[in-house]
Design a protein that fits this description.
Layout (H helix, E strand, L loop, with lengths): L1 H19 L25 E6 L4 E6 L4 E7 L18 E6 L5 E6 L4 E6 L4 E7 L4 E6 L5 E6 L4 E6 L5 E6 L4 E6 L5 E6 L4 E6 L4 E7 L8 E3 L5 E6 L4 E6 L6 E6 L4 E9 L2 E8 L4 E6 L5 E6 L4 E6 L5 E6 L4 E6 L4 E7 L4 E7 L21 E8 L9 E7 L4 E7 L7 E7 L8 E8 L6 E7 L1 H5 L9 E7 L4 E8 L2
Antiparallel strand pairs: 1-2, 1-28, 2-3, 4-5, 5-6, 6-7, 8-9, 9-10, 10-11, 12-13, 13-14, 14-15, 16-17, 17-18, 18-19, 20-21, 21-22, 22-23, 24-25, 25-26, 26-27, 29-30, 29-36, 30-31, 31-34, 32-33, 32-35, 35-36
Amino acid sequence: MKTSQNNFMKSMFLAATMLATGSAAWAGQAPGALSAPDIPISHHDRVYAAEQFSNTVSVTDPVDNKLLGVIRLGDPQPGNFSPLYKGQVLVHGMGFSPDHTTLAVVSIGSNSVTFIDTATNAVKHTTYVGRSPHEAFYTPDGQEVWVTVRGENYISVIDAKSLKEKARITTPNGPGMQIFSPDGKYGYICSSFNPETDVVSVAEHKIIAKVKQESPFCPNIAATPDGNQVWFTLKDVGRTQVFNAKPPFNLIKTIDTGPITNHVNFAHTAKGTFAYVTVGGLNLVRVFRTDDFSQVATIPVGSLPHGVWPSGDGTRIYVGLENADALAAIDTATNSVVANVPIGQAPQAIAYVPGAAPNPDDLQNLQPLGVAGRVAHLSMGPKDGPREGAPTSVSLFDQGLIQILQASVTGLQPKQKYVLALADRNDGSGPLQPLAAFMTNPAGSAIVNAAGPIRQIVDQSAASGKRYLVIASGDATEPGGAVQIETQ
């Protein structure tokens, strides 16, 4: 009864807010329609981030850009290795209901969608789906939640009331993300394993068109508020593609955006509609007009930008910084970073939800960052040549006695084998101890992970036994010479 009353109050609050702001100079922020009124930033709004290595959802007040706390969905390593473990693992994807009362959070490692009441920050249900889901989003009418089951070949369609799976939509292997046309007629599903984006009739749950991707790896897709365009990113080749959101669903534009191109979203302002694309390998956000596709800004934001979402009035864009454990706030009038908020470990998807908190002083079920706030940052650069603008950022996320290492590697040869290793000398010479072998993508970049007490080994304040991070050519069995070495 209390939950129903909270949801009713939230719906009434949001409706009143939208009615009061209907005379804005411009309107319609993604994922809503252009006809929707803008909602000015207030203490009732919340910015959420899904944090992969701390298994948390951070909650930020956008007025003063202050972290209010985290919703803890799971434990760090090695606690989450237990066969009796019940929490969530690899908290990653995120969507929210059209009435802004419910957050849907996808955890890749535990195959789940966690539904959170935004008024109380409480988990109200967890639905388990197929292998390695990636993203989830509500249909514009709020009746269904579509989940891309990336480890398999279908969309899990969940009834928004019962929170149980009601249908499956078969796709090529590896559906990456789905989003909907603002009018709710079409669903757009890009793929992470096949070079194909599918257009689905929402009413019939049937694929009605296919759009060719230039590469198989699309992590993110978004539709413009006017319902005319769909943009999707290609992480492996560093490009962003645009196609017609309506029949015949033809490709319109391909843009070279840069290595580890991550997410895209839109802000509609008095000057037009702009696409904001996070480029992880260059630590920046590129901004494009949606009418002529011209680039209007390049915004340095910090290490490995990932998720991106506009405020309810389009005056700000929020960006999750995966290797900086922070949320960057961009002023869309100046296209400059105006705030940086410390949050949990390795933020992935983010969501700005206007009117999420009817009582902005109610912080129940929020916890402090704790161990999630302890992260060490390093950088690596070419062994030979200029060190300015180090192409590789490294984060060591504390998990208690061990850390998860994540390196955002760029500046290497495409489609070649390399190994991240430890060296006894800071120039990378001598014997190497391999940590992780990897192959670069067509843009010469990669995301590389390892786990262990690595901070204690490479920390600048360590004893004489300190070792250094290097990237060498070859593989773990026969590493070659160092090509990148630790610079900080």
